[in-house]
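Assess this one:
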Amino acid sequence: MPIELILMDNVENLGKIGDAVRVADGYARNYLVPKGLARQATPGALRQLEAKKVTLRIEYEKEVTGAQSLAEAIAKQSVSIPVQASDDEKLFGSVTTQHIADALKDIEIEMDPNNVLLEEPIKMLGVYPIELQLHSEVVATLKVWVVRA
């Protein structure tokens, strides 16, 4: 039997903080409520939720500001990735998101390869503008030089 709860935190594939959701009783009892992700809709829970929203909004704005400043710094940078290539500039293999994330470590930027937005692996020598997802609202563009080793 479904039960109605208020989410106290963002829950993937369910909702965002403050949403009223209907979930199976077992999901609520065994997962959402014990982990503090949701609560029954009581006046106390609503007050707690409002206080948490203010704190989360401040933290979110700090994260966005930090990501924007990092994006500006990344836009001024470029990385080179040396690779083996044929005479017609085709690579022996390809440059993937992992290669780009490793190259970013050389300029002291930690990046999860999943946040490197590369539609398909690079297979030719050249200069490529690569987008990096720093935050849900912030995308930086990095200049990647794929050069002959």
Summary: Strands lie at 2-7, 20-24, 38-39, 78-83, 90-95, 116-117, 122-124, 126-135, 138-148. The longest strand covers residues 138-148. The mean pLDDT is 91.
